[in-house]
Specification:
The protein has 274 residues and is α/β, with parallel strands linked by helices. It has 2 domains: 149 residues, 3-Layer(aba) Sandwich (Rossmann fold), CATH 3.40.50.720; 119 residues. 45% of the residues lie in helices and 19% in strands. Strands 8-9-3-4-2-1-5-6-7-10-11 form an 11-stranded mixed β-sheet, sandwiched between helices. Helix 1 links the parallel strand 1 and strand 2. The longest helix has 19 residues. The termini are far apart. Bound molecules: NADP nicotinamide-adenine-dinucleotide phosphate.
Length: 274
């Protein structure tokens, strides 16, 4: 198949080098500087792949966007192929993707790792993508190795557990110790976010997030991860602040629509720089 990946950031690179060799892969870029790019990613081994660079969306069987479907030009790239997908876990972007897909199969290809850098791009702990939505079978068949599938709500509920903590880090200017002090509020916000997403996208009511789990995650992650966690959080999530705010707003909207409490999410939203 011909697979177009929108974007050429770390997630696009890990995705391109995770697809089976038999597929032809291209990157949709905003400005084309060359015809192709040799992409290198590594963990235990170095994976390489030459991908075509393009600004057009013609002739692709599958398009997977690592950029927001709401970003200018992305809807046009998603307009023609038989199957469309995105890595997003932002509820309103998932709704937009569903709308853009219309009668065509669509899905989510959600990264379950941290990734950064270019040539080589690194990832941790595993280059795993959770595949969800009506096009799951086709999307899963693109990969060189088996990837987990999940109901549509699952990766969204999972993001609702972690992203309020990221929002709390953002509010604390990515100082882990400061964010740890607000673990009870972050856990309460995450619980409200998960309830709102489960109500909006179906699925059982999720378990509440415990403040001890939030505190433990903020303590343990920097010890376990083989990279500079504060630096990574600041450089990656600091650059995706708009996305974090959009998620918080979406959870508040979903919660209100379903008559659920959103006060902790509202309070967090007030503390995150837009
Ligand atoms: N990195 C991670 O560890 C990780 C883990 C889990 C989830 N995610 C999520 O996955 C997504 C991608 O992550 P990332 O780290 O690869 O982000 P990134 O470095 O910001 O990459 C996004 C890519 O999308 C491109 N893009 C944005 N708008 C576009 C448009 N309108 N047309 C064409 N290309 C466009 C950007 O192009 P330019 O180069 O021109 O800016 C960039 O190459 C984000 O939503 C992120 O939150 C990331």
């Amino acid at each position: 198949m011909r697979v177009l990946v929108v974007g050429k950031g770390p997630v696009a690179r890990v995705l391109a080098t995770s697809l089976a060799e038999r597929h032809q892969v291209g990157f949709a870029v905003r400005e084309q500087t060359a015809d192709s790019l040799l992409v290198e990613t590594r963990r235990h081994r170095t994976a390489r792949r030459t991908v075509a660079l393009t600004t057009a969306g013609e002739g692709w069987d599958v398009v997977i966007s690592t950029a927001s479907p709401a970003s200018p030009g992305v809807a046009g790239l998603l307009a023609r192929p038989a199957v469309v997908a995105a890595v997003t876990q932002v509820p309103s972007e998932v709704e937009l993707l569903r709308e853009l897909a219309g009668d065509r199969p669509w899905g989510l290809v959600v990264p379950g790792f941290f990734a950064g850098g270019a040539d080589p791009t690194w990832w941790w702990p595993q280059a795993r993508f959770t595949v969800a939505g009506p096009a799951s079978d086709v999307l899963r068949s693109l990969f060189a190795r088996p990837q987990p599938t999940a109901p549509l709500a699952a990766p969204l509920v999972s993001a609702a557990a972690t992203m309020p903590v990221v929002a709390g880090l953002h509010a604390a200017d990515f100082d882990l110790a400061t964010a740890r002090h607000s673990s009870p509020q972050l856990a309460a916000a995450a619980t409200q976010a998960r309830d709102a997403v489960a109500a909006g996208f179906g699925g059982p009511r999720p378990r509440p997030v415990s403040r001890h789990a939030v505190r433990a995650a903020l303590t343990v992650l920097p010890r376990l991860a083989p990279f500079d966690v504060p630096h990574y959080l600041r450089s990656h999530f600091g650059g995706h602040g708009e996305q974090t705010v959009r998620m918080l707003r979406d959870w508040v909207d979903l919660g209100r629509r379903h008559g659920l409490p959103t006060d902790e999410l509202d309070a967090l939203l007030g503390r995150v720089p837009a």
